[in-house]
Specification:
mainly alpha; Cytochrome Bc1 Complex, Chain D, domain 2; 2 domains; binds heme C
Length: about 190
């Protein structure tokens, strides 16, 4: 009888103790799971080339679809020190930006561009503006636009949406790449 009782007691004790043990493990897991966002970010930086949930940051085209024009206009305040926006507006420190989207680079007659900007070539496509405004000196090393850049993607998209509106006939928005899982339904 005593042996059986002891066996039950040990079994019960074992259950209680192992239960406590699992609890403490569970607690620890809870804590470590808080650091997950960091791991996700670094996984993205490495990039597997595969489309995964991790690489699902919105693209410029997607951000432009939902861009906030009013916020863009507000964000442009910092540019106003150097740029006018109205049609035929004058040159200040920087060239006038009317119709800038799709405009040839360094095209304002009478503005003395840096040779770096003058030689960059091509038009101000969405991608070019998106990169240039992130960090002007990265896109055109010797530009004389003294401006650190706009790091936030959403803010840049808003700014570009505003620049796009500075036109008699704003250009079409860039197409958003269809998600791979999208079905072709007619
Ligand atoms: C401190 C003055 C200054 C500020 C602030 C500034 N810019 Fe400029 N920007 C310039 C100058 C100067 C140039 C000409 C650069 C060159 O020739 O290298 C320029 C050039 C440009 C161009 C190319 C124009 C063309 O005709 O090819 C764009 C686009 C532009 N700026 C947009 C912006 C936007 C948007 C902002 C605000 C987020 C901004 N700039 C803030 C001075 C400024």
């Amino acid at each position: 009888m005593n042996k059986a009782f002891l066996a039950i007691l040990i079994a019960v004790l074992y259950f209680i103790l192992s239960g406590m043990f699992t609890d403490s493990v569970f607690e620890e897991q809870k804590i470590t799971s808080n650091s997950y966002p960091i791991e996700v970010a670094s996984a993205k930086a490495v990039g597997t080339g595969e489309k995964s949930v991790v690489s699902k940051a919105p693209s410029m085209a997607e951000l432009l679809q939902t861009a906030d024009l009013a916020a863009g206009k507000k964000a442009f305040k910092v540019c106003k020190t150097c740029h006018t926006t109205e049609k035929g507006g004058k040159t200040v420190t920087g060239p006038n930006l009317w119709n800038i989207l799709g405009r040839k680079k360094a095209a304002v007659a009478g503005f003395s561009y840096s040779s770096a900007m003058a030689e960059k070539g091509g038009n101000w496509a969405y991608d070019d503006l998106y990169q240039f405004l992130e960090k002007p000196k990265d896109f055109i090393k010797k530009t004389k636009m003294i401006f650190a850049g706009v790091k936030k993607k959403k803010k840049r998209a808003n700014l570009i949406a505003y620049l796009r509106s500075l036109s008699d006939s704003p250009a079409a928005l860039p197409a958003v790449e269809a998600a791979p899982e999208t079905e072709n339904k007619d």
